[in-house]
Amino acid sequence: MFEFIGNHSSQITVIFAVGAGVFAFIKWLDARNQELKDKRYERYVQHIHILSGSKDSKDVRISMTAQITAAWLLLEYSEYYDITLKIFDNPDLERMADKPWQEFVLPQVKKVIEEIKSRS
């Protein structure tokens, strides 16, 4: 056994080095995929904030166009369709919003909800 190791030490070293490199690459790939998932979730949440009219500061007003755009961009997040439906397929939604939002944004949200239901 020791003779075999001694005779093939350079090959064994290469095999271990390649194995370690593959392992490191797989760990990096896993970490990168998790990072991309986290960023994608953050973008989804940003669209929800925009759609709901949440403001980062009192001086910033979110336009209706930005809210409508955010509604339609939710279609890009199929992995969150269930939660999107739970949030926006809500009969109380009309009562929670002001009149301009109800008039301009809500109809678009309802169309997005119907599109999500047709895709699910």
Q: Can you give a write-up of this model?
A:
With 120 residues, this protein is an all-alpha fold. It has one domain (2-119). Helices cover 78% and strands 0% of the residues. It has six helices and no strands. α2 crosses α3 (64-73) and α3 (64-73) runs parallel beside α6 (99-119). The chain is elongated and about 85 Å long. The mean pLDDT is 91.
What count of helical segments does DSSP give?
A: 6
Unreliable stretches (pLDDT < 50, length at least 5) are none
- Over the alpha carbons, how many angstroms does the gyration radius reach? 25 Å
Helix content: over 70%
Identify the overall geometry.
Answer: elongated
Beta-strand share of residues? under 5%
Mean pLDDT: 91
The overall number of domains is 1
The main pleated sheet reads as:
none
Cα separation of the termini: 60 Å
Number of beta-strand segments: 0
The helix/strand class is mainly alpha
- Please trace the helix and strand order, writing H or E for each element: HHHHHH
Topology summary:
Layout: H1 2-7, H2 9-52, H3 64-73, H4 81-88, H5 93-96, H6 99-119
